Amino acid sequence: xxxxxxxxxxxxxxxxxxxSTLQQLNxxxxxxxxxxxxxxxxxxxxxxxxxxxxVSSCSMGNKSVTTLVESLQESSTLLQLNVTSNFLxxxxxxxxxxxxxxxxxxxxxxxxxxSIGSVGTxxxxxxx
Length: 128
Fold this sequence. Notes:
- The chain is an alpha/beta fold.
- The chain contains five helices and four strands; from the N terminus they run αβαβαβαβα.
- The protein has helices at residues 5-16, 34-46, 62-70, 89-100, 117-127; strands at 24-26, 52-54, 80-82, 108-110.
- The protein has a four-stranded parallel sheet with strand order 1-2-3-4, with no helix packed on it.
């Protein structure tokens, strides 16, 4: 664990907004709260090179994950998103499904170990 938290995540995200080379970012196993998730979301709206983002096991709740996935509506380069082992829940999975209906670039999505339940599963399945 690096324990970069909201502050470190925000600093990293700000630097990546204009980065033109990095294609993969793995910040897994860090405590990223709402502020960090918002910073990553804003970065995804502007960054044009990042293709893979791993935020697995970051203790992100429904609000944080929802904020992050909503940015996918404006991201045209992200191909892989890993939100494994967070606290997505059925509400977050439903929000994710709604966003993914509009996103045409994401190819790989990992939502395992998120307690999305039957409601979240159904929403994601209908999106496919």
